[in-house]
Write a structure and sequence with these properties.
Elements lengths: L3 H17 L5 H13 L5 H6 L11 H13 L3 H7 L4 H6 L7 H11 L4 H9 L11 H15 L7 E2 H18 L4 E4 L1 H4 L4 E2 L1 E7 L3 H9 L4 E7 L3 E6 L4 E6 L5 H9 L2 H13 L3 E3 L2 E4 L2 E4 L3 H7 L15 H7 L13 E5 L7 H13 L4 E9 L5 E3 L2 H9 L6 E9 L14 E5 L19 E2 L5 H14 L2 E3 L9 H9 L4 E2 L12 H11 L13 H5 L6 E2 L1
Parallel strand pairs: 4-7, 11-12, 12-14, 14-15, 15-16, 16-17, 17-18
Antiparallel strand pairs: 1-3, 2-4, 5-6, 6-7, 8-9, 9-10, 12-13, 14-19
Helix pairs in contact: 1-2, 1-7, 13-15, 17-18, 19-20, 20-21
Amino acid sequence: MPTNREAAELFRSIADILDVLGERFKPEAYRRAARSIESLTEDLAAVAARNELRTIPGIGEAIEEKIREYLTTGHLAYYERLQKEVPPGILDLLRVPGLGPKTARRFWLELGVEGPAELADAIAKGRLTGVAGFGPKKVEQIRSALAAAAGPGAGQRLPIDTAYPVAQRLVAGLKAAGGVERIELAGSFRRCRETVGDLDILVTSSEPERVFDAFSRLPEVGEVRLRGGTKETVVLRQGLQVDLRVVEPAAFGAAWLYFTGSKDHNVHLRSIARDRGLKVNEYGIFRGEERIGGRTEEEVYAALGLAWVPPEIREDRGEIDAAARGPLPPLVTAPELRGDLHCHLAPDASARDVDRMIAAARARHLDYVGVVVGGVGADGARWTLPSAALARLDSARPPGVTVGRAREDASNGDASPGDAPRSDYRILRPIGSSPGPPTRPPPSGEWTLAAHVGGDEAARRWVPWARSARVALEVGPGPERLDSTAARAAREAGVALHVPTGVALAEDDPLAPVALGFARRSGAGPKDVKNTARAADATGAWARPKRA
């Protein structure tokens, strides 16, 4: 059965081909349908089975018929017919960064270029010289994009938790080198998408060449692909492309907004600007030739009659319409996380490890930490923390942090050992390959949190159970936690989220910032997150809490 993501990609491909063919209105209809399908928090097939496809925004009679055909057969005759109307290489052109359907159509009809290889040959032979809209700078950008698309790792996307430490090292290296006045990350990284295809870094600087020289010398950089007056493109040794742009302060907000995306969000903003007789791009927002805003993102949104939109939800899924009505509901922030209910120490943890974790909790201004003291591991083996660590949990008394004890139970019915150390609350953890929640209906409050339940699996099987059991689900990177889509399904079902702080991990571990980003991307506010509450409210009952 095709997935929601596969169906959305199919309709985006249809929209691209229709653009190449010169259709005016149909492409946006298919893109809107794709956005709606991708944002669903349940299987498209389940909606079709209830005969409710037309309740999805953008799905009318014609697209409903195509969805049913695709769900039933795995194919769509309309798409296969469209593919025959354009050269196969045109679709490959659409995968080159920065080349949209309208540009691909021009190459095809005006130059007879039908694929990336032919485009590279046309550039090499100077056939784009003198073509309207393709000056030397634009041609060089296209040449660079073709090289990047053909290079190692092209088209691959990295998990954001893998890209996170890389991005932080690049930013730190540029700051240390000097010459940078302001530096920010943009793109899908800033929107905290689960994967990133490249990195976008924006800086302000009066010394662009100094910044570019420093950037190209960073140890992570493998090759410089392009350097212009305001942009340098490099490929890291691991294959990830990074674009560094130097932006004037008066346009920084507009550029940050533009290069953060998403593309659909930006397209919607441009349509609003046109309706108001304005133009918005990476250089600012303009009335005629006059720039009326762009120093901050807020200026651009305000000129369009909109409240500022947090980057994590800029996907054109209703956030712009909501911003037109006034300020959006606040999303959860790091200072609002008052504690962490799911902290693991190493199996051989010492008293010193406990002290380090408590010191880290104090440094992050947490009110409480819940340490897992025993349970059933992923391999089914029962375990407990060493006695020295357990003793230190009870004896530590520095002010400011309440220390609680958690026990992990297995969802397959295995309990912790009878002689397990005392615990204040219980966490449920799936054991085995793709396990579901317990089959018996649990008494409310039996567990505080279900952890490591997975992403898509959680949305389908664990969310209904967690709602009935009043149990929170953990969000964060990796296949064992909820991604942002599954977290949104949980939140919309009334299930609380738990956002890990990574307090027991290394300072540069990406778990905490990425988990927070996923929660924000799901639309979670402070009241949707269990560990924004006080300790007693977060656990339901915190028996014999210890002040550490």
